[in-house]
Amino acid sequence: MKIIVIGCGRMGAGLAQALSLQGHAVTVVDADPAAFDRLGPSFKGNTVAGSAVDRETLLAAGMERADGLAAVTASDEANVVAARLAMQVFHVPRVVARLYDPRKAEIYRRLGLHTITPVTWGIHRMAELLCYSRLDTVASLGSGEVDIVEAEVPPLLVGRTVTELTVAGEAQVVSISRAGKTFLPTLATVFHKGDLVHVAVLVSSADRLRKLLGLQ
Fold first, then answer.
1. Which of 12, 40, 42, 176 is packed most tightly, with the most Cβ within 10 A?
2. CA-CA distance, 61 to 28, in Å (whole number)?
3. What's the whole-number mean pLDDT along residues 175-195?
4. In what order do the strands lie in the sheet with 94-98?
5. Cα separation of 216 and 213, whole Å?
6. How many other CB atoms are there within 10 angstroms of residue 81's CB atom?
7. Is the pLDDT of residue 111 over 80?
8. What CATH class has 2-116?
């Protein structure tokens, strides 16, 4: 994939390096040429010095041919403008913007813009780590509103079906690992002893899921 990363701060540089190591063609844009030093000598992608919201800069970065764009500058406004330009003018298929202000994130999501809000995600993750739980979060989606958690099926659910661990709109079993294999269950799938389940759950419904698993 051809991916453009707008902003070469710590997050932008780290993202660009990770994507490059995965074999993607990465171009990094930043107003400060010195910021590219963060990429290190091993970075194999391209760099373009210029404004995140300047059309000529974006064209020089290959926006017309890009498969994806991540806007991760220090400015919420610049990130949103760059992301919306990518979506609406250049029709880039995959676009995501980092926002510091959680209040803005919901507004832009309603406009169809995918956002990541580190503050919101960090709050939920730190609270989770401080409050011990046998639910292990393996991924957070959106801006931290939905988690993918894993847990071993407790004895009280062995012999019961996935329906027992499903709450419409709040929690849903997305996979089960059993005897070294992982599969997608149906609502009628029966839990076995030793099953490891992965559940998509609203962060606000985590306590309810713990009760269903007998962890409270």
1. 12
2. 8
3. 94
4. 46-49, 25-30, 2-6, 68-71, 94-98, 114-116
5. 8
6. 17
7. no
8. alpha beta
Alpha-carbon distance of 140 to 10, in angstroms, equals 20
Average pLDDT over residues 199-209: 90
Question: Taking the model in full, what pTM does it have?
Answer: 0.63
The CATH class for the domain spanning 127-212 reads: alpha beta
On average, the pLDDT of the chain sits at 88
Tokens of 104: 């803005």
Comparing CA positions, the residue from 166, 131, 130, 136 lying closest to residue 151 is 136
CA dihedral 162, 167, 171, 174 (to 10 degrees): 30
Domain extents for the chain? 2-116, 127-212
Block residue for tokens 């171009």: 27
What pLDDT does 99 receive?
87
C-beta separation of 52 from 6 below 8 A: yes
Give, rounded to a whole angstrom, the gap between the first and last alpha carbons of the chain: 45
Give per-residue pLDDT as tens, 130-179: 654 567 788 888 767 888 999 999 899 999 999 999 999 999 999 999 98
| Side chain identity at residue 170, one-letter code | E
The phi, psi pair for 32, rounded to 5°, reads: -105, 110
Residue 24: per-residue pLDDT: 94
pLDDT value at 37 more than 80: yes
Is residue 15 within 8 Å of residue 72, measured between CB atoms? Answer: yes
Calpha distance 28→18 (Å, rounded)? 12
How far does CA 105 lie from the centroid of its chain? 14
- Take residue 48 and report the two structure tokens written for it: 């373009």
